[in-house]
Design goal:
Blueprint lengths: L3 E2 L6 E7 L2 E6 H21 L17 H24 L1 H5 L15 H19 L3 H25 L14 E2 L14 E4 L2 E4 L4 H23 L8 H17 L20 E2 L5 E2 L1 H24 L1
Parallel strand pairs: 1-4
Antiparallel strand pairs: 2-3, 5-6, 7-8
Helix pairs in contact: 1-2, 1-5, 2-4, 5-6, 5-7, 6-7, 7-8
Length: about 300
């Protein structure tokens, strides 16, 4: 079987050590910083173009976008961490609640981060008097940038990889021995060792959720007038992300904490050892329904 060896990538862009002081900039942190900065800039530019918005009136003054960015940062960090704790490892953190504060140890949930951003954005709108749906559209317009960079950083970190695969583009991620395949699929030889090759599901998500979805949302916002229809862009984001994530979950390795003797794959809801729904798919279903609601609502308002 042919498979692609994982390239010699380091999770750290650079590191500095001076005596007892050490600092490392990781690609994942850089993805957050660049994604937030790019999103801020694009939203600022959109607010400076009133013709993009209903009644040719932007929902915010350009200088107010900085306050929105602050709310988004808090929502992403707090929501992402708490979402991971509640959705994926509630039993672990129930015994040590303070461990939930140790964000540097890893563990963030996209769905939790999205909920955190929604709450933070709503509070921001209440304080500034901005229309919530239009602010949601502005954030939906740029979220694909962060998803693209974040999934690429996941690949560089060799984390959140996919299920075992015999596809010619399957990747041999570091540290995966043959027994990690738990079956014949994905077993291959590399440098004299028998290893497990897997789907590069991080790249599937970067393509679908990041590049394709993000490009479409930006095009619709800037070229097709979708920002004039409050809620339409938000609804489309929910539908496209939900569909993409639901599809990729069939190739992505589910979270290990759900595995067991009768559930080797790790389904959150297992109908059989080979069939079930992952936690990612379960959390995506409400997004799909909410997205359809927003799209229908926006269409009726236009009609």
């Amino acid at each position: 079987m042919f498979a692609i060896p994982f390239p010699p990538l380091s999770p750290e862009l650079f590191s500095i050590e001076i005596g007892s002081f050490s600092f490392a900039l990781r690609w994942y942190a850089l993805a957050y910083l660049v994604g937030l900065a790019a999103g801020w800039w694009l939203i600022w530019k959109a607010m400076a173009r009133p013709a993009l918005w209903p009644a040719d009136t932007a929902p915010l003054r350009p200088e107010q976008v900085e306050g929105l960015l602050t709310a988004v940062v808090l929502g992403v960090i707090l929501g992402g961490r708490l979402g991971y704790v509640f959705f994926y490892q509630p039993d672990v953190y129930a015994g040590d609640p303070l461990a939930a504060l140790r964000i540097w140890e890893g563990g963030m949930s996209f769905h939790g981060g999205l909920a955190g951003v929604a709450i933070a954005g709503y509070i921001f709108c209440r304080r500034t008097g901005a229309p919530p749906l239009q602010i949601a559209d502005a954030m939906s317009m740029v979220i694909g940038i962060g998803l693209l960079l974040g999934r690429l950083a996941n690949f560089v970190n060799a984390e959140l990889w996919g299920r075992p695969s015999d596809a010619p583009w399957a990747v041999i991620f570091p540290g995966l021995a043959a027994q990690d395949c738990e079956g014949p699929v994905g077993i291959t030889e590399y440098l004299g060792a028998t290893v497990c090759a897997r789907h590069p599901s991080q790249l599937y998500e970067a393509l679908l959720e990041g590049l394709l979805m993000g490009s479409l949302l930006l095009w619709l916002a800037w070229r097709r007038g979708w920002l004039k229809r409050p809620g339409a862009l938000t609804g489309l984001f929910f539908v496209l992300y939900g569909a993409s994530r639901f599809l990729v979950e069939f190739f992505r390795q589910p979270d290990a904490q759900f595995t067991g003797p009768d559930n080797p794959i790790g389904f959150a809801v297992a109908l059989s050892p080979e069939v079930g729904l992952t936690m990612g798919q379960i959390l995506t279903i409400p997004m799909l329904l909410l997205g359809l609601f927003f799209l229908l609502r926006a269409r009726r308002r236009v009609a």
